[in-house]
Amino acid sequence: MNVRRSAAVLAAVAAIGAAAAPAALADEASPSPSVALPSGLYGTSDPTYDGVWRQSLALLAQDTVGVKPATKAVDWLVGQQCANGAFAAYRADTGKACDAKLMVDTNSTAAAVQALAALGGHGAETGKAVAWLKSVQNEDGGWGYAAGGASDANSTSVVVGALVAAGEKPAEVVKVGKSPYDALLKLSLPCDGDGAGAFAYQPDKKGKLAANADATAAGVIGALGKGLVAKPGGEAGASKKAESCTDSGTLTPEQAAANGASYLAHAVEKDGYLKSALAGAADQPDYGNTADAVVALAAQGGAEQAQKPLKWLERNSADWAKQNGPAAYAQLIFAAHATGTAADDFGGGDLVSLLNETGPAPQHTPQQKGAKDVSTQVNSGYGVYWIVGVGLVAGIGIGFLLSGRNKNQQQL
């Protein structure tokens, strides 16, 4: 993404035959931006591959905790939109019209829709963006990262979130009779094999599905018809323990979500975190995907179900968030929100203030509890960078949207 933005971007680039390009990496992974940073942008790293994504998550997280963002921060995001409604990862020169060479994508567009819809007053922009998303829906009902690319669980799920945020009913957004839920169900693994109940990112070349923790966290949220910001499941606060994977007749989106949550619960049961699937990072925690798993578990079965990975994040995520910037802080805020945890006292740290400090000063910030700087938390010792993609450096665990996506769908 800057969160979940590595293998998926590389796959999309390869799919369209473009020259090799790095994925959108962790926010602080590129210490020397190759472009001048706009004053309204969150984060200090080169935004070429993740600008709209990290800006959207930052604004959405601020809105979630009652912060009113700076006008220039919102204006920057709005200004990134192309005339056809789509968003690219980053447009350095917004005075120039988008052309065929600009790689717009579903993930940036869907994230921007969720942020702008939450902020309100941007019906024209979100309407155009949703119209574009509908125009590039695949015949299986889903979406790939790039328009026309094969559907994947992550992209389809983030678009579902955008549709819901814009007041659409995903089940009624169909192409050749197929909805986004049909696409997600095709990526749900059966209960009688490896990775029981998980979601695959995409089928491999032979059509085989392999469990992918990042895709599963995304798939659970998408199958529930929710977005990046999700409340605990049950609406009335009831908590349901993740049960074993269940095949009972025709698979429904709700059952697929429950099966996916069961897979995630078992995956974090031992250590409290998901492991990274990135090359060279064997047995290392994936912080971003763990945060996404917290949201998915809480959204499906209630806050109690997500307590183990939540507590692990509270103890260990400080260095990762500091290194990875606004999108990482946003993910942690989403995890706190989904579990009813105070974001301004997350493991002793104030995520809200730390997020605000990565961009222009907000117009309004609710009174906080004055928690200690999150950098004073106990850290896990895993705050290191690993070589990925075409040789650039990324922080471990960039989650739900794209960061942990592995083109080969390595199993957890």
How would you sum up this structure, described in words?
The protein has 14 helices and four strands. The chain has 412 residues and is an all-alpha fold. It has a single domain, classed as Glycosyltransferase (Alpha/alpha barrel). The strands form two sheets. A two-stranded antiparallel sheet has the order 1-2. The chain has a two-stranded antiparallel ribbon with strand order 3-4. The longest helix is centred in the middle third of the chain and has 17 residues. The relative contact order is 0.17. The N terminus and C terminus are likely disordered.
Distance between the termini: 18 Å
Class of secondary structure makeup = mainly alpha
> What is the beta-strand fraction?
under 5%
**Using DSSP, what is the number of strands?**
4
Please, how many domains? 1
- Output the strand order for the largest sheet: 1-2
CATH class group:
Mainly Alpha
Q: In oligomeric terms, what are we looking at?
A: single chain
